[in-house]
Amino acid sequence: MTLSSSLVELITTVSRGRELPPVAHLHRPPQVVPAGRHKKFGMIMLADGSCGFFYTRFDNILSRLMACDPAQILATPILDLIAGYDGDDPLAKALGLGALNALSQHLLRIGGFTLDLTSDPFGQSRLEHSEHVGMVGFFPPLIDMLASHNVALTIIEKDRQFFDRAGNFSVTADTARLGDCDQVLVTGSTLMNDTLDEVLACCNPAAHIALIGPTASCLPDPLFERGVDVVGGATVSDLDHLLPRLEAGESWANGTGKYCICKKHYPGINTLLHSISEQQATTLDSGSTAMDDIIS
Fold this sequence. Notes:
Blueprint: H1 3-15, E1 23-27, E2 41-46, E3 51-55, H2 61-67, H3 70-75, H4 78-83, H5 90-110, E4 132-136, H6 140-146, E5 152-156, E6 170-172, E7 183-187, H7 196-202, E8 208-212, H8 221-225, E9 230-236, H9 239-248, E10 256-262, H10 269-295
Helix pairs in contact: 1-5
């Protein structure tokens, strides 16, 4: 089973029988981003305020997104949108990932899972203590952070515009080079282009692997099953602050928070939701008993 299939199947299964919040808002990023601004993400917001991000700047996604009717997307049941993530159409896949991320945030919240907003945004990797870091996708902040440390850095990148970049690192399209790395950072965009399984297959089994980025804000269970150690995503902390910045293509500033979910500290979404269901059942039973006492 592919990763996209696993993610869709999991969220569909755990959502069965639950009342799910509908899609309430679709953010489409500006097609022309002013100088110095770089946000390229769309966002789906559910009626309870849960939000999910998706990347828009490849496969002609943005132009198609701008041409679509937002009312049709808002009228589509959330699980139907999510089903599009496990398909071949780039726009449906992007919207599906955004919807999957939004519903994942909802499920984690109702499951009582507290997101760790205090860890480093690079997935608890302690990169300065590594011997050889692998980076899938070109992360300028990470490169700047490692510049002062004596750490070998290999960047896996398919976009050839990065091949001639100068610095204390090497850039290659050869994913097999990840086998030499003891720490690997992977961009969440691999969830969109279906390359994460290939990346993980090339990693050293002993390496510490972190998947990071706004588009990696999904339920982490299938990722942990495949060997990822930490998932670093983004959650919305102040929607009123974020929305105007999104519309202007500006930095998200204090509108969002970066979080990490560590495999060894995560009980699993089924455990979280089952625990909540048991608590609700106990509360209902207690209420029924109290009412019976009053009646009798």
